[in-house]
Specification:
Chain lengths: 97, 97, 97, 97, 97
């Protein structure tokens, strides 16, 4: 899984019927401190994530292993919202209240 | 999913029989403003996308989760046409009428 | 799918039994003009492609969605030979007769 | 599979129900000497790996081929803890007791 | 598939039970001349490859399409030992006797 930050939203009227009503969020991968890098990508949300959240995304067929994404043409899913990350014995990221 | 811009079309007479009659479009990945970068790739179209459209593409086995692409040897599908993108609270891309 | 040019062939006596009699070609990815870049990779041929041809390759489980590659341990397939590419309203590649 | 070093842990209260009770570790890919490089990624642990361990991670649908990860939306699994690596006839990494 | 050179071996006592008795080799991708580049990766061997061999590796779910790797949490398999490569009409690699 990748650590990523939710940075925005997508509006798409014309899309595969299985995507109707689904939330497609824009993300950027981050390091262990939540600092974004690289180009944006888009994932389907299954955990009610919001802008600014640090999340985990799973890609490939694994993205279809949730109730929401079964048999759906999506290749990336947000499947967890990160509360905190501990790296090398220190808290490297802590979600703000 | 990747944000990508449709930049062209492919003509291929000799191909897997399951691809007969299918539209294979040329794309380049873009950032959240629709600015392309990187090398072109090709995806099968399922939403009647056209040149200049900003779209979402899904890769891997997820590309076969549409009525058009089931059991077909394609690894990338266009499954949505983007109307607009909002990033960091601002509209970063808006489809022209 | 990637646009790629067939640049060579592979000979392998010791291989998975399902690969017996199959043609494994060496390719390099190209841009929309057919100019190669990057390192070579190998794909199983299902469309009788030859050296110099510009082709499309599909990767991952999609590579197994042809009669020739079903249940076979190959992760990349040549599933179309490109006749021409049109990008930004101009023919960027045309197969020579 | 990638050679990777476990560098930390993830806490996530809100997540896919199938992830309840699972350990999601933070890793960085390493070379054959165990020297990390690149950005961190996250994998589900199935072998009771701990901080500092050098491990192997498998990605994609292969990450779901364990008893713990079956049908779970995870795309990377730790499936082995490395005792030693031998490269070019020399021990390039040896786990400390 | 990637062209790769076997450069070493992995010892791992703690691992997924399905990996018991399997050979996990360390490889580096090579160009068409067999010259390695990039970081090492690990694949399960199904063709009795040895150190120094140039081989083909298949990734993803395709890595599980052999008798040895069925239902196993491995994402890369060695499925052929290369005898020779011909690129641009010349032998670019020939296995030494």
């Amino acid at each position: 899984m990748l650590i990523a930050k939710v940075i925005g939203t997508t509006v798409a009227t014309i899309k595969d019927p299985k995507l109707t009503g689904r939330k497609l969020l824009v993300l950027r991968q981050t390091d262990e401190h939540g600092a974004p890098f690289g180009k944006p990508y888009v994932a389907i949300d299954t955990v009610d994530a919001g802008a600014g959240d640090l999340v985990l995304t799973a890609a490939g067929s694994s993205a279809r292993q949730t109730d929401i994404t079964k048999d759906t043409p999506v290749d990336t899913v947000i499947m967890a919202i990160i509360d905190s990350l501990e790296v090398d014995g220190k808290i490297s990221f802590q979600k703000s209240e």
